[in-house]
Amino acid sequence: MKKPFPKFDSDEKLEAFLETADLDEYELTEGALPRDERFARYERFAKDASIHLRLSGPLLDAVRAQATKEGIPAQRLMREYIERGLRRRSRSESE
């Protein structure tokens, strides 16, 4: 079992700790606050399945550029697009 990550009252103390700490010894996700609502939604469910998806080079480049702009991984952005599309379709079918 990993140790809980300690709390620090200043950036300087945190930086000093990080210079020498072996982060593999610490639980880095427990108690972490989500960066934003989107991140919270993403982390809510286990990702227990995977697919192989072939895309055109320009489409993949556009996805990567958008993901970089939003500051998230490209695969997370693609998953969000799929989830949004399915929610929209579900809403339009129920109307």
Strand-helix topology:
Layout: E1 3-4, H1 11-20, E2 26-27, H2 37-44, H3 57-70, H4 74-94
Parallel strand pairs: 1-2
Structural account:
By secondary structure, the chain is mainly alpha-helical. The chain has a domain at 48-95: Orthogonal Bundle (Arc Repressor Mutant), CATH 1.10.1220. Helix content is 56%, strand content 4%. It contains four helices and two strands. The chain has a two-stranded parallel ribbon with strand order 1-2. α1 (11-20) links the parallel β1 and β2 (26-27). α3 packs across α4 (74-94). The longest helix has 21 residues, at 74-94. The radius of gyration is 19 Å and the shape is elongated. The relative contact order is 0.08. The mean pLDDT is 82.
Can you summarize the main beta sheet? 2 strands, parallel
**CA gyration radius, whole angstroms:** 19 Å
Beginning-to-end CA distance, first to last residue: 50 Å
CATH architecture title of the domain at 48-95: Orthogonal Bundle
CATH class of the domain at 48-95: Mainly Alpha
Q: Give helix and strand order, one letter per element, not per position.
A: EHEHHH
What level of helicity do the residues show?
55-70%
> Count of helical segments?
4
Give the overall pLDDT as a whole number: 82
User: What is CATH's topology name of the domain at 48-95?
Assistant: Arc Repressor Mutant
Percent of residues in beta strands? under 5%
What structural class should be given to the helix and strand makeup? mainly alpha
Low-confidence stretches: none
| Tertiary shape | elongated
Number of strands: 2
Which strand order do you get reading across the main beta sheet? Answer: 1-2
